[in-house]
Amino acid sequence: MLRSLIIAAALFGPSAALAETLAITNAHIVTEGPAGEIASGTIVVKDGMITAVGASITPPAGARIIDAHGGIATPGLIAIGAPIGLSEVSEGVPETDDSSTASDQISAAFDVQYAVNPNSLVIPVARLGGITDAVITPGERRSRATRSESLMFNGQAAVIDLGSGMDLLRKTQAGMALDMGEDGARRAGGSRAAQFVILKALLQNVRDYEKTKANYDLGLSRALSLSQPDLEALIPVVEGREPLIVSVHRAADILQVLKLAREEKLNIILEGAEEAYMVAPQIAAAHVPVMVHAFEDLPASFDQIGATLTNPARLAAAGVALAIENPSFYTGARTPRVDAGRAVAHGLPMSVALASITITPARIFGVADKIGSLEAGKDADIVVWSGDPLEPLSAPTAILIKGVEEPLRDRDLDLRDRYMAIAGLKPAH
Amino acid sequence: MRFSGVAAYAALAFVALAGSGAIAGKPTPDPAPAKTEAPKPLPPGLDPEANPDPYPSTYRPTPSPMVAIINADILDAGAPEIPRGTLLMADGKIVAVGPAVAVPEGAKVIDAKGRTVTPGLIDPHSHLGVYPSPQVEAMSDGNEATDPNTAQVWAEHSIWPQDPGFQHALAGGVTSLQILPGSANLFGGRSAIIKNVWSDTAQGMKFPGAPYGLKMACGENPKRVYGSKGRAPSTNMGNVAGYRAAWIRARDYKRKWDDYRAKVTRGEKADPPLRDLQLDTLVGVLEGKIRIQNHCYRADEMAQMIDISHEFGFHITAFHHATESYKIAALLKREGICSVTWAEWFGFKMESFDAIEENDAILQRAGACVTLSSDDENLIQHLNVEAALAMAAGNRAGLAITRPEAMAWISLNPAKVLAIEDKTGSLTPGKMADVVIWSGDPFSVYSVADQVYIDGNLAWDVRDPVYPPKSDFMLGQPAAIAIAGGAS
């Protein structure tokens, strides 16, 4: 009995451990909060939360000290748009990939919260890129059956932390993913001229369903074109309580989507948005935030002939709230920070770049009360860096998630150490 | 008729034997009759050796001015860094590099204070042109996925020179690249090595004198593509059987041509074998003229490929992707095989599950040849950042990778993989003047290529939208207002 308890304690590890009282000292703190940038200061962490941040804070007695030695401390980075915890091996092992579905019954009701695997080997890899939290969004629907192909919505996103606990969910139903442009048009029979019409009809279906649920349950309502779980899932969207994450690329489509949102009173987030800079004033005026890939600059499709590396900078200059997305998951799980740096090379102010992977996505997805900045009262998701966090030569030297200091290890390093030993290679220092 | 022909061949045989002195113990034939008519060549296209370069490069660099880049921090492949140095180029070639190079009168002087000069970058694994932007089915020409052996296809016949990706790669400092067929097949076809110059034909981009590569592929891709069609290969052992069967046919084909040529040389009547484009390419490998560029992820599969190369007598130049090369660094060093890698990609397939960030650094320290590559139209624009990431991972492991070593991963080492290292890949005097001026340290994400020179000519200038000429496809498109938007 005792033995099994010990094993259980070992298994649950740091997550079961009470978060200790910690103080990060001698840190150059970029708070992304009201305190701004603190050239040298201290962050105090207690019970998993930040209790104080400032230049002249004395660590509480008994606190374990993490000396940053002048290193930069930032809020933990927030990865957005990556299926972290949902997908282990994307190609050739579809049984490990829960990021999308081909079901002909479930589209909007698809909900990533049920598929998060806290033991995913990808989580520690991303964590070593300084990522402490993630907005995980459903991938594009898998095409299989004809009816399945015609379903519009990809499903609902969630916000998770990347700690070593077993319950990573921070927020569920954080957004409803929808593809417009060429991908969406394909599902509407090949034309966006059909997709907008179908979409408006679907939203009307949801409103009708909401008003006449009793009749629906009695089988008295007219035929609705979505399954009941899909209809239910879309109620918060038509009520404007859950944002609609719209993947859209060409400028003309973006304007149509803004119009649709205005007419249907939807709360939307633009995703992809490679040509958004062409209509930046309209996006800013509509107070619609944008998620972009900072490396997209090729006419990969006719939807993004105008793609350019200056898109993030131009959107920011127009006053659009900007979040920089993870690059393709497996090719850049560790490096959204470097992508943010890339946008700086093409005109994005450095302060906006860091905000675009911390506080801005936290605000966009409604979790800024907990994460995204270093402020008393927020969760202690903090990264200390060896240098400028946006530079490829830098790396985290300490990572805290909900006040727990995570080990700087992943499976990559286990392989590295095994094969360096086999090759007889010893560290030079 | 018959007789006169034999006499002519015999005359030729004598010349050849006298020249080589190869046949010991045989009596030297008497001098042949005076008539020394050359053997009649086969009709055009039937003799693979008659015209080994039927689609020749038409790239001729335009005359270039004398340019001196002064006050530059010079970061060359594998050479000590030179702070505040000078690089002099003229007539398309690098003339001098050093801390105190005299600037001749008449040279155009560029003050690169605070900026860094490096060799032009080289990407040994790209699909630009064969999988161009826009990525539409109509121009998806990179995989002839109709048979597991398509050694007969040549990537240059699929290259669309108007792919706008070429200009974007140039903005990332890439001056030479290898365009490979895809990896659907065991034998995917010949690669094309090109200079990143604007041209309206593939021939106008081809790197003069560069040898061909042959794309081979291990592992999951071929067995998935053909297994799903209900045909071989569907397993790794099926893959290996497919390689071996092909090399047997290649050896047999080579024997037939050798026999034919020997008979002709002896003046005997001989029927030429029917030319086979697929086997021509494989024989080119057996004769050391074509270099094997082998897509192969796993260490165990690489070891199998090495044994196959020994069985049939050829050399593998490089394993591409090579995510597990770090596991067999000593074997790769012994065999003289380069690894063409990514810095970060991992886990997207089972065969990349063990990919680690330290692959390049471990290979470097173990003394094996290693390069980075893109395999991607976006990544090719940021190879300098890839090198920085891989170097940093190695240095966190204590492997003490130097900056010139990391620079070699994206310049001189890929030049070696492509057999163009005597012409480009470093700032050595006499080499092609393929040069990048970076706005700052190329290992910083904030730096961009300010200027790129190819054969001494300005090819990219971040401040002048005239360089490079846009792809025809981009003319009149809305991005025309944005594409040159580098550093603002």
Provide a descriptive summary of the structure in words.
The complex is a heterodimer of chains A (429) and B (488). With 429 residues, chain A is an alpha/beta fold. Chain A has two domains: 133 residues, Urease, subunit C, domain 1, CATH 2.30.40.10; 293 residues, Metal-dependent hydrolases (TIM Barrel, Alpha-Beta Barrel). Chain A is 31% helix and 21% strand. In chain A, strands 1, 2, 3, 4, 5, 14, 15 and 16 form an eight-stranded mixed beta sheet that branches. Chain A is globular, with a radius of gyration of 23 Å. Chain B has 488 residues and is of the alpha/beta class. Chain B has a domain of 304 residues: TIM Barrel. In chain B, 26% of the residues lie in helices and 18% in strands. In chain B, the strands form three sheets. In chain B, strands 1, 2, 3, 4, 5, 15, 16 and 17 form an eight-stranded mixed beta sheet that branches. A six-stranded mixed beta sheet of chain B has the order 8-10-11-12-13-14. In chain B, helix 4 crosses helix 5 and helix 4 runs parallel beside helix 6. The longest helix of chain B has 31 residues. Chain B is globular and about 65 Å long. Chains A and B meet through helix 11, helix 12 and helix 15 of A and helix 9 of B.
In the CATH hierarchy, what is the architecture of the domain at 121-424 in chain B at level 2? Alpha-Beta Barrel
What would you report as the Rg of chain A, rounded to the nearest angstrom?
23 Å
Task: Tell me which oligomeric state these chains represent.
Answer: heterodimer
Average predicted local confidence, pLDDT of chain A: 92
Instruction: Spell out the helices and strands of chain B N to C.
Output: HEEEEEEHEEEEHHHEHEHEHEHHHEEE
Shape type of chain A: globular
How many domains of chain A? The number is: 2
How many beta-strand segments of chain A? 16
Structural class of chain B: alpha/beta
CATH superfamily descriptor of the largest domain in chain A: Metal-dependent hydrolases
